[in-house]
Write a structure and sequence with these properties.
Length: about 210
């Protein structure tokens, strides 16, 4: 699949692959449907090349530059950005400075990976096999859902008080290892329709269970 000769609109979400095994190729192909800018970190390179997907940008460590250059020689044109540290933050920085307002991220969720300053500036949705995570920078998050959809909320500060509409708490036996079970709150809709989760002072993550 090629992204040559396509006029892109930076209003369309870019695709940033951190952990290619975090979800299936089918979902990634769906997210590639509008030929977004595709940015990956070097650890994802071998898998993405094996899929035969055209890459636009690789974020790598300086010591890996020549290796990445050799592996991607057939991908021209491609941009390789070598950095000293923090591939994820530099990938988000790249997208922000090229005026992308939103990004879809393929990742096993680890909140500390995502620098707060970029989360405040772009719409970030993290996808993997079990859920998609929405970062809510301001005020509230609203969505129409079916009655069987399950949600988790991970606050960015301890003991965050949330206001909800059409949601009730539920007990889940297992919280994902990468989420803090002490601070994560779990909800399910009271009925099909719009739900809303709000806190006027602090950001939070909303996880919608998909698997």
């Amino acid at each position: 699949m090629s992204s040559h000769h396509i006029i892109r609109d930076e209003q369309e979400p870019a695709l940033f692959i951190i952990d290619p095994d975090a979800c299936g190729l089918d979902l990634i192909q769906q997210l590639l449907g509008w030929s977004p800018t595709l940015v990956i970190v070097e650890q994802a390179l071998d898998q993405v090349l094996a899929w035969g997907i055209k890459i636009d940008v690789v974020i790598c460590y300086e010591k890996s530059f020549e290796t990445v250059q050799a592996k991607t020689s057939a991908q021209f044109p491609i941009e390789i950005i070598a950095v000293e540290s923090n591939l994820v933050e530099n990938g988000l920085r790249y997208l922000y400075h090229r005026n992308h307002v939103s990004v879809h991220v393929i990742s096993y969720f680890e909140g500390e990976r995502f620098a707060q300053n970029f989360l405040e500036k772009m719409d970030v949705i993290v996808f993997n096999q079990k859920y998609k995570a929405f970062y809510v920078a301001k005020d509230s998050w609203k969505k129409w859902v079916t009655a069987d959809t399950l949600f988790k909320v991970l606050p960015t500060v301890p003991d965050l008080a949330l206001e909800t509409q059409n949601l009730e708490p539920y007990q889940e036996e297992k919280i994902e290892p990468s989420l803090n079970p002490q601070s994560t709150q779990t909800f399910r809709p009271k009925q099909e329709g719009f739900i809303q989760i709000s806190n006027l002072k602090h950001p939070f993550w909303v996880f919608e269970k998909i698997g």
